[in-house]
Amino acid sequence: GVKPFANFSTAASVDKDRQSPGVQVYTGAPVALTADVAQVGGVVKYDWIISENSGLVDNPATLTVDESYITTKLSGINASVTFTTLGKKVIVLKVTDEEGNVVSKTREVEVIAPQASVITWANGAGVNDGTLSLTNLPVPNNKLKIIWGDGNYEYVTTTNAASLANKAHTYSTAGSKFVQVYVYQSGLQKGYFRANITVTP
After folding, report:
1. Inter-residue contact 185 to 88 (CB < 8 Å)
2. 48 and 29 Cβ atoms separated by less than 8 Å
3. CA distance 191 to 141
4. SS3 124
């Protein structure tokens, strides 16, 4: 018979950071998994394998895997997974028909922290000054670019920093500022975060 077809896509609403390459999802938020119909007629089994390690699949045709890498197994044409740790994760859809034909599709997502939990601004004792702190940064990284929202920006050299504490900045005026932070590793963008902060005079 005709072999089944394995494919699944991530809806646009799933990608939480469309300015970064790949697909980013938030920690603690359910990610809906929906497989395409694999075969018209017949009996098809859909299995989902979720891994914390990008080296999950040794043989994509048969899904020969190191079981120690697997963190979650699900079944059904529709499923849902919630990630609790940051970093790259692998999602594999394995489709098996009644004749024993097996096909698979693998996709990688990067789990990031929700925007609000990454950027924190603390107003200082001076005029229009304060400090910026960052948490839950994606690693590895070796450079940050902070765009302050007042026409100024600066680069910060890092070494796989998961956080940055008390980066000082003084604005020329008080009010609402749109701060953006880019995270890089060897020139490749690893993450992008943004927040509106309020600077008090």
Report:
1. no
2. no
3. 9
4. coil
Write out pLDDT tens, residues 52-103: 665 554 444 444 555 555 678 888 988 888 888 888 888 888 888 888 888 8
Choose among 163, 179, 183, 159: nearest CA to 171: 179
- Between 20 and 181, the higher pLDDT residue: 181
Alpha-carbon gap, residue 143 to 63, rounded angstroms: 37
CA–CA distance, 81 with 84 (Å, rounded to integer): 10
Residues 105, 48: Cα–Cα separation, whole Å: 10
Query: What tokens does 181 get?
Result: 């932070």
Q: How far apart are CA 24 and CA 81, in angstroms?
A: 14
Do 182 and 142 form a contact (C-beta atoms < 8 A)?
no
**Position 14: which residue type?**
V
- Measured CA to CA, the distance from residue 90 to residue 54 in angstroms comes to 6
Contacts of 77 (CB under 8 A, 6+ apart): 34, 35, 37, 46
Q: Are 144 and 158 within 8 A, CB to CB?
A: yes
What's the pTM?
0.56
Structure tokens at 137: 């940064």
